[in-house]
Amino acid sequence: MAGILEVKTRLATARSVTVLTGAGISADSGVPTFRGADGLWRNFRAEDLATPGAFARDPRLVWEWYNWRRELIATRKPNPAHDAVAAMERRFSRFWLITQNVDGLHRDAGSTRLSEIHGNIWKVRCTACGRIEDNRQVPIPILPVCTLCHKLVRPHIVWFGESLAAEDLATSHAALESCDVLLIIGTSGMVYPAASFAPVAKSAGAFVVEINLDATPNSDLVDVALQGHAKDIVPLLL
Ligand code: BJW
Ligand code: ZN
User: Measuring from each residue's beta carbon to the nearest atom of ligand 1, which residues come in under 6 Å?
Assistant: First the structure.
């Protein structure tokens, strides 16, 4: 593919690289995406369950959904695309990974300079005292409570209608505005604010590359759109 050569050339002279990932990079590890048919659970969409209102109405149902996902993700391993992103971190002194994924597979692959802007499925947060704890229990006993104050805990995940952490937003914007190359891997570009990250980097002068199975709302804006599986394409860019 001609596009791959152009991206390799850009990366060869880049001083600063930022990567934005979505569910598509973990699809190659067998983690269902959100907007694919395999993302459905008992006919609910993420938009039905990943909201503060859904948790307030029926915390048991929402925790059951998370238990399904925790069970699934617990058996999954990083794939060559996660490995290649971790290798990029070692290659470039100025590097930042912004991931929308909550599965933790980037950390498993060795990435350390990253913002998990939608949280992490292996952390829980107390609805009363706000304490955040690591929790790898699979399945988690329903309903789980805080070790400190014994009130209900929730997944430490950003749901629809909730704000991202201010620090994650600031770090992400700094990385988008200062990078020479932005790689956007496996995201539909439908969910804000991450959906606006490509234009932010583009207007700041970055060379923007999309790697996705399909065209997305970002495809017209990017400098190069590479269509295919992340696990096949991302390792070729190094
Ligand atoms: C492959 C592949 C392979 C597959 N290789 N590629 C109207 C307009 C604008 C904004 C809003 C609006 N109404 C509401 C909003 C705000 C809302 C929003 O954006 N909604 C949209 C749906 C319209 N956003 C928010 O609420 C955010 N907060 C916020 O904005 O705060 C301020 C505010 C508050 C209130 C009102 C307004 C503003 C928070 C968003 C939190 C998102 N959280 C989730 C779920 C968490 C649950 C959990 O994980 O447990 O995060 S939603 C879900 O989508 C998840 C993902 O991180 C996120 C993005 O999805 P992603 O990663 O792109 O996955 P898919 O499935 O969509 O796409 C996969 C892609 O991969 C596809 O393109 C495939 O082709 C590709 N692919 N296999 C390469 N092998
Ligand atoms: Zn508590």
Answer: 22-24, 27-28, 33-36, 46, 50, 100, 102, 118, 157-163, 186-188, 190-193, 212-214, 216, 229-230
pTM: 0.97
Nearest CA to ligand 1 atom 36: 161
Residues listed for the chain:
238
- Can you name the residues that pair with 16 across neighbouring β-strands? 94
Phi, psi of 41 (to 5 degrees): -135, 120
Residue 150 and residue 66 share a domain:
yes
Q: Are 160 and 47 in contact (CB under 8 A)?
A: yes
Among protein residues, the one with the nearest Cα to ligand 1's atom 4 is 24
Q: Tell whether 206 and 149 lie within a shared domain.
A: no
Question: Is 150 in the active site?
Answer: no
Q: What is the pLDDT of residue 1?
A: 61
Per the structure, the complete domain to which residue 6 belongs is given by: 2-29+77-118+164-237
pLDDT (tens digit per residue) in 4-39: 999 999 999 999 999 999 999 999 999 999 998 787
